[in-house]
Amino acid sequence: MNANKELTEERKCPIETVIHVLGGKWKPTILWLLLDSAKRFSELEKRIPGITQKMLAQHLRELENDRLITRTIYPSIPPKVVYALSEYGETLIPVLQTMCDWGENHKRPVAKQ
Fold this sequence. Notes:
Elements: H1 3-10, H2 14-22, H3 27-33, E1 39-40, H4 41-47, H5 53-65, E2 69-74, E3 80-85, H6 93-107
Protein backbone atom coordinates (compact mmCIF):
# COMPACT_ATOMS: atom_id res chain seq x y z
CA MET A 1 0.00 0.00 0.00
CA ASN A 2 1.42 3.41 -0.87
CA ALA A 3 1.86 6.24 1.63
CA ASN A 4 -0.87 8.47 0.14
CA LYS A 5 -3.47 5.72 0.33
CA GLU A 6 -2.49 4.97 3.94
CA LEU A 7 -2.80 8.66 4.84
CA THR A 8 -6.19 8.91 3.14
CA GLU A 9 -7.50 5.84 4.95
CA GLU A 10 -6.33 7.19 8.30
CA ARG A 11 -8.18 10.50 7.77
CA LYS A 12 -11.83 9.64 8.07
CA CYS A 13 -12.88 13.23 8.80
CA PRO A 14 -12.66 15.67 5.85
CA ILE A 15 -11.49 18.41 8.24
CA GLU A 16 -8.35 16.35 8.87
CA THR A 17 -7.64 16.42 5.14
CA VAL A 18 -8.08 20.20 5.00
CA ILE A 19 -5.78 20.66 7.98
CA HIS A 20 -3.22 18.33 6.42
CA VAL A 21 -3.21 20.26 3.13
CA LEU A 22 -3.55 23.79 4.53
CA GLY A 23 -1.82 23.16 7.84
CA GLY A 24 1.12 25.22 8.87
CA LYS A 25 1.51 28.81 9.80
CA TRP A 26 2.10 30.13 6.30
CA LYS A 27 0.21 28.08 3.69
CA PRO A 28 -3.12 29.97 3.92
CA THR A 29 -1.24 33.28 3.73
CA ILE A 30 0.71 32.16 0.67
CA LEU A 31 -2.50 31.07 -1.05
CA TRP A 32 -4.22 34.34 -0.10
CA LEU A 33 -1.38 36.36 -1.63
CA LEU A 34 -1.64 34.38 -4.86
CA LEU A 35 -5.38 35.08 -5.23
CA ASP A 36 -4.98 38.31 -7.17
CA SER A 37 -1.91 37.47 -9.28
CA ALA A 38 1.14 35.28 -9.76
CA LYS A 39 4.13 36.19 -7.63
CA ARG A 40 7.85 35.58 -7.61
CA PHE A 41 9.54 34.00 -4.61
CA SER A 42 11.03 37.34 -3.53
CA GLU A 43 7.61 39.06 -3.70
CA LEU A 44 6.08 36.42 -1.42
CA GLU A 45 9.02 36.66 0.94
CA LYS A 46 8.62 40.44 1.23
CA ARG A 47 4.86 40.21 1.81
CA ILE A 48 5.14 37.60 4.59
CA PRO A 49 7.17 39.10 7.42
CA GLY A 50 8.82 36.51 9.62
CA ILE A 51 8.92 33.64 7.13
CA THR A 52 12.33 32.18 6.37
CA GLN A 53 13.47 31.35 2.85
CA LYS A 54 13.69 27.69 3.83
CA MET A 55 10.11 27.62 5.16
CA LEU A 56 8.73 29.52 2.16
CA ALA A 57 10.47 27.13 -0.24
CA GLN A 58 9.18 24.12 1.70
CA HIS A 59 5.58 25.36 1.76
CA LEU A 60 5.66 26.29 -1.93
CA ARG A 61 6.96 22.80 -2.75
CA GLU A 62 4.21 21.17 -0.67
CA LEU A 63 1.50 23.35 -2.22
CA GLU A 64 2.83 22.47 -5.67
CA ASN A 65 2.88 18.75 -4.79
CA ASP A 66 -0.77 19.07 -3.66
CA ARG A 67 -1.53 20.70 -7.05
CA LEU A 68 -2.80 23.91 -5.42
CA ILE A 69 -0.21 26.14 -7.08
CA THR A 70 1.80 26.08 -10.27
CA ARG A 71 5.47 26.90 -10.63
CA THR A 72 6.50 28.38 -13.98
CA ILE A 73 10.15 28.83 -14.91
CA TYR A 74 10.88 31.43 -17.59
CA PRO A 75 14.12 30.89 -19.49
CA SER A 76 16.03 34.05 -18.79
CA ILE A 77 19.26 34.94 -17.05
CA PRO A 78 18.81 34.69 -14.15
CA PRO A 79 15.84 32.29 -14.46
CA LYS A 80 12.52 33.82 -13.49
CA VAL A 81 10.27 31.58 -11.40
CA VAL A 82 6.63 32.53 -10.84
CA TYR A 83 4.06 30.91 -8.55
CA ALA A 84 0.32 31.09 -9.19
CA LEU A 85 -2.86 29.41 -8.02
CA SER A 86 -3.65 26.41 -10.15
CA GLU A 87 -7.13 25.79 -11.49
CA TYR A 88 -7.54 23.22 -8.71
CA GLY A 89 -6.16 25.73 -6.18
CA GLU A 90 -8.84 28.20 -7.24
CA THR A 91 -11.42 25.84 -5.74
CA LEU A 92 -10.08 27.02 -2.36
CA ILE A 93 -11.06 30.65 -2.99
CA PRO A 94 -14.41 30.35 -1.16
CA VAL A 95 -12.67 28.63 1.77
CA LEU A 96 -10.00 31.33 1.97
CA GLN A 97 -12.62 34.08 1.66
CA THR A 98 -14.66 32.53 4.47
CA MET A 99 -11.53 32.30 6.62
CA CYS A 100 -10.80 35.97 5.89
CA ASP A 101 -14.35 37.02 6.74
CA TRP A 102 -14.27 35.02 9.97
CA GLY A 103 -10.91 36.58 10.90
CA GLU A 104 -12.25 40.08 10.30
CA ASN A 105 -15.31 39.37 12.47
CA HIS A 106 -13.17 37.81 15.19
CA LYS A 107 -10.97 40.92 15.37
CA ARG A 108 -13.96 43.19 15.96
CA PRO A 109 -14.55 44.14 19.59
CA VAL A 110 -17.48 42.37 21.19
CA ALA A 111 -20.28 44.85 22.00
CA LYS A 112 -21.05 45.09 25.70
CA GLN A 113 -24.45 43.74 26.55
